[in-house]
Amino acid sequence: MQQLVIDREGVRLDVALSQIINDVSRSEVRRWFDEKRVLVKGKPVRPSLKTKMGMSVVILRPQPTVNKLVGEDIPLDIVYEDEWLLVVNKPQGMVVHPAPGHRQGTLVHALLHYLGSDELSDVNERFRPGIVHRIDKDTSGLLLVMKTNEVHRRMAQLIARHDVDRTYYALVYGTISETTGSIIAPLGRDPNNRQRMAVVASGKSAITHFQVIKRYKKFTLVKANLETGRTHQIRVHFQYIGHPVVGDPLYAAKRPACGLSGQALHAGRLCFNHPMTNVEMDLRSPLPHWFISL
After folding, report:
1. What is the C-alpha separation between 176 and 289, in angstroms, rounded?
2. Inter-helix orientation angle 26-34/13-20, to 10°
3. Mean pLDDT lowest for which of 21-25, 156-160, 287-291?
4. What pLDDT score was predicted for residue 66?
5. Which CATH number fits the domain 78-161+285-293, given the four candidates 3.40.50.300, 3.30.2350.10, 3.40.50.10140, 3.40.190.10?
6. Are 110 and 74 in contact (CB under 8 A)?
7. Catalytic one among 23, 34, 73, 136?
8. CATH node for 2-59
9. Is 136 one of the annotated active-site residues of the chain?
10. In CATH, which superfamily holds the domain spanning 166-263?
């Protein structure tokens, strides 16, 4: 079972789900509706149902044909933990949850060893226990993990309302002359490559605010805050303005990788009101050593 909170108004539900869920095809989304696997208020709905902001949708996704997940003894860098949630500092190169081609060694495997399946939320399907949002494999930094279904649902609502402030640090190619700025450009699937996102007129609204931290001879270190949280948003937006993220294999493939195996992008700060206690949380992760050494 997967539960989503819809963050857009007045579009067909099948279209919205195809845009929001990145690991399935449009034909598979249509099959879910045909098999009555998409529920709103506990009842199957038609694909043409128009969405409302904050609408809760449950998807009874068929289980993938893989073996049951078993925890793996992988070290975790835990930045914060309480009885409801924890925040981990994910290293570059670690996939968040199992997917085709990544059946072992994921963050979920490490969490299962550390906590056990009974101590992680199961709002999403069983191959993503505790995961309420994700960051790309080669992006390092802070990630929220939910222990109970109640806190998972509350945190998902905070994220959908943009009440979780996420700060990223990126090293980009070239010199950005502005001290601060905003990149406002809609994002959608690249029509020529489904693995990539692109700035497209029909895409979803996307806004990235940035501040220059330091300028180098060939690079610029920037701090970026997301007003929206689209797939690959920072990576695509900085490519769009001519300053792709250093080492990005998708959006800067023709640039020198500088010895990196992935993009120089770090999720360095999370700010939110705790969904159970309403205490203001401000969690930070320093830039990794490989990032600074560039």
Report:
1. 23
2. 130
3. 21-25
4. 47
5. 3.30.2350.10
6. yes
7. 136
8. 3.10.290.10
9. yes
10. Pseudouridine synthase (3.30.2350.10)
